[in-house]
Amino acid sequence: MSLEFGIHLVQKHRHKFTTGVMHSFTGKLDEMERVVALGLYLSINGCSLKTAENLEVLKRIPEDRLMIETDAPWCDIRATHASSAYLDKIPTTEAVLYAPPRKAMERFEIGCMVKSRNEPCTVGQVLHVMASVRGDDPEALAETVWKNTEKIFFPNDLVRHDSV
């Protein structure tokens, strides 16, 4: 389904739901603005960080509308993506957590990723790239994304982090 058609469907049926997430957002600036105007959240993954234009759109997404995902086993950050240049900025101690060694499926070991497959642990890469591109602190951005996630998926169970 095209993003344009997705936006059309949301506009047509917006009165039937309170909120939502535009999954794996890869749209242009005007599309992002239309999605935000509909009161939706935008979920970012490796495919969302593919081009220089995608990175520019990411900078403009309102903080209170940002979400994060891996879309594993797809949508990893690849060497051909504009975002791959930001992977070198991830501290080494964290980089090994977000991209452990990869092995062919038939040689799989605990603690390794399956070769040619995105894994949930790469969400840290997505977070660090998002923070670098936006000029945000990764921990602060993680907290923001967590709060946005609570708002949309657990609105009755909001945790007060300042009291934890």
TrEMBL record:
Instruction: Name a Pfam family for this protein.
Output: TatD_DNase
What keywords are annotated for this sequence in UniProt?
Hydrolase, Metal-binding, Nuclease
GO CC annotation: what is one? cytosol
Listed InterPro entries: DNase_TatD-rel_CS, Metal_Hydrolase, TatD-like, TatD-type_Hydrolase
Please give the SUPFAM superfamilies that the UniProt record associates with this protein.
Metallo-dependent hydrolases
**A GO molecular-function annotation:** 3'-5'-DNA exonuclease activity
Q: Per the similarity annotation, which family is this?
A: Belongs to the metallo-dependent hydrolases superfamily. TatD-type hydrolase family.
What name does the UniProt record give this protein? Answer: TatD family
